[in-house]
């Protein structure tokens, strides 16, 4: 199944209550927007190669968890079978991105080159754990992080599957 047209919103980690509410660890900064009532999302299981369209009926947050109920899954017996499923959103349902703004998933696996054309590695992860978006780049010898800021990121060429970065001493 080709999932290039979908973005990960979160992962179901359990259930709460008899009405089929899911406990979700969200991967999106926009959880309140993604889980608005009436939004169409998709439940996905890699193991079962299954993609199920669902409609949000209720959403709330407590501590570090999101709680979501879908119209199509409205009781505990139904919801319990979806533990560990991913929640996806179709890219087609999202507004267009502004220039020089990218989905993290679009940057993963891009080849990274210096401004001089030297191959430096492949983007393996995009993270935002420090309040600063960083690319983790790996090559045969090691891995290193590059801040995703204009000073370092000179060009992102999605069609060519590459990123050109400015290298300073000690970066690589």
Textual characterization of the structure:
By secondary structure, the protein is mainly β. It folds into 2 domains: 88 residues, Elongation Factor Tu (Ef-tu), domain 3 (Beta Barrel), CATH 2.40.30; 62 residues, PRC-barrel domain (SH3 type barrels), CATH 2.30.30.240. It is 7% helix and 46% strand. The protein is built from 3 helices and 12 strands. The strands form 2 sheets. A 6-stranded antiparallel β-barrel has the order 1-2-5-4-3-6. Strands 10-9-8-7-12-11 form a 6-stranded mixed beta sheet. The chain starts with 5 loop residues before the first strand and ends in a 7-residue tail after the last strand.
By CATH, the architecture of the largest domain is named Beta Barrel
Radius of gyration: 19 Å
Number of helices: 3
Give, in spatial order, the strands making up the sheet with the most strands: 1-2-5-4-3-6
Structural class: mainly beta
Shape: elongated
Order of helices and strands: EEHEEEHEHEEEEEE
For the biggest sheet, the summary is: 6 strands, antiparallel, barrel
Distance between the termini: 36 Å
Query: What's the CATH class of the largest domain, please?
Result: Mainly Beta
Content of β-strand: over 45%
- CATH topology term of the largest domain: Elongation Factor Tu (Ef-tu), domain 3
- The CATH superfamily label of the largest domain reads RimM
Detail the poorly predicted runs: none
The mean pLDDT is 90
Count of all domains? 2
Number of strands: 12
Q: Summarize the amount of helix as a percent range.
A: under 10%
């Amino acid at each position: 199944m080709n999932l290039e047209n979908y973005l990960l919103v979160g992962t179901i980690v359990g259930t709460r209550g008899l009405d089929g509410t899911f406990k979700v660890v969200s991967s999106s900064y926009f959880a309140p927007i993604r889980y608005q009532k009436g939004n169409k999302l998709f439940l996905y299981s890699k193991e079962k190669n299954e993609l199920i369209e669902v409609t949000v009926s209720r959403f709330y947050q407590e501590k570090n968890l999101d709680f979501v109920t879908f119209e199509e899954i409205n009781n505990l017996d139904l919801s319990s079978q979806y533990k560990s499923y991913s929640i996806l959103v179709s890219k087609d349902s999202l507004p267009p991105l502004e220039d020089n703004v990218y989905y993290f998933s679009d940057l993963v696996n891009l080849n990274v080159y210096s401004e001089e054309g030297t191959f430096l590695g492949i983007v393996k992860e995009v993270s935002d754990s420090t309040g600063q978006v960083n690319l983790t780049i790996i090559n045969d010898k090691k891995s290193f992080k590059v801040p995703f800021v204009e000073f370092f990121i000179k060009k992102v060429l999605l069609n060519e599957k590459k990123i050109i970065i400015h290298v300073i001493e000690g970066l690589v």
